[in-house]
Please model this.
Amino acid sequence: MGTLSFTATISLDGFATDADGDFRWSSPSAEVFDFHVERMAAVSTEVLGRRAYELMRYWEAEPPGEEWGPAEREFARRWCALELVVASTTLTPAELSSERARLVPRLDLAELERLVAEAPGEVEIFGPTTAAEAIRAGLVRDFRLFVVPQTLGGGLPALPPGAVLDLALVEQRVFANGTVLLHYAAR
Model:
């Protein structure tokens, strides 16, 4: 039986993207990226929306003209081993680039619970919009928030409005660039 987690890089004022939808301000340092590579060892399934899926396709093959380092290659290897569930009403099955990806038009909470129950490891739900209903319903067990020491003044909130959460801090870490990992578990 797996667990459901939500991981997000957020600004100090709680936003996952700025008002224009940009998240380049949140690019991880090498130390933070290495941490992501290691934590991915526990993940067996990734649930994500269309935009996140399209963004993460980058990790399916080293782009021509770029040379990944060992950490990027290991992240890509781990990413390509994950089962993917893509929630989108606009993508078609033909647009999925991997046989390990399954398209669902809507992320049904009962289906998500079944998926987590059958998963051999952690199921990570990626993206605040995709995760919002599961967070509000109390299905998410672990929250990993990478807080970047920057404020944006507005944008897409990492946590959905109306979410009432009772969490316990289970891990914290400060990285050299000032990013702080706060790992909370639902009580």
About this structure: The first helix runs from residue 30 to 39.
